[in-house]
């Protein structure tokens, strides 16, 4: 459970759990924009994850009404930076300026 959830004695939200894992909430969308945004974030080098929208997290009742009409089609996009592992720092490199 996150610190915030523990402070108010409630279950951790999906958004809080994903944030702990390094995911950043970007937006909610439906097709065709959903696929376009996934492709864009992937091309920019992000790992992309889609989750169902959390109606409880919507700011206003009016927003919930729009999302409820097509709830199954909406997804929330989360991204995080892809951490790449690199071989030992320049080991065996011919360029001596790159060696430690």
Q: Return the structural class.
A: alpha+beta
List SSEs in N-to-C order.
HHEHEHE
What summary fits the major beta sheet? 3 strands, antiparallel
Strand order of the largest sheet: 1-3-2
Oligomeric nature of the chains? single chain
Task: Furnish the topology, listing elements before pairings.
Layout: H1 3-7, H2 14-20, E1 24-29, H3 33-43, E2 46-52, H4 61-69, E3 75-81
Antiparallel strand pairs: 1-3, 2-3
Can you put this structure into words, describing what you see?
By secondary structure, the chain is α+β, with helices and mostly antiparallel strands. The protein has a domain at 15-82. It has helices spanning 3-7, 14-20, 33-43, 61-69, and strands spanning 24-29, 46-52, 75-81. It has a three-stranded antiparallel beta sheet with strand order 1-3-2, sandwiched between helices. The model is unreliable at 95-100 (pLDDT under 50).
What is the structure about, briefly put?
By secondary structure, this protein is of the alpha+beta class. It has four helices and three strands, in the order ααβαβαβ. A three-stranded antiparallel beta sheet has the order 1-3-2, sandwiched between helices.
């Amino acid at each position: 459970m996150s610190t915030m959830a523990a402070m108010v004695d409630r279950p951790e939200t999906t958004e809080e759990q994903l944030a702990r894992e390094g995911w950043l909430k970007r937006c909610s969308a439906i097709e065709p924009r959903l696929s376009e945004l996934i492709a864009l974030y992937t091309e920019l080098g992000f790992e992309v994850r889609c989750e169902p929208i959390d109606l409880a997290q919507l700011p206003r009742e009016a927003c919930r009404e729009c999302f409820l009409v097509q709830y199954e089609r909406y997804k929330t996009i989360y991204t995080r930076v892809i951490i790449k592992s690199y071989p030992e720092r320049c080991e065996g490199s011919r360029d001596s300026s790159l060696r430690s």
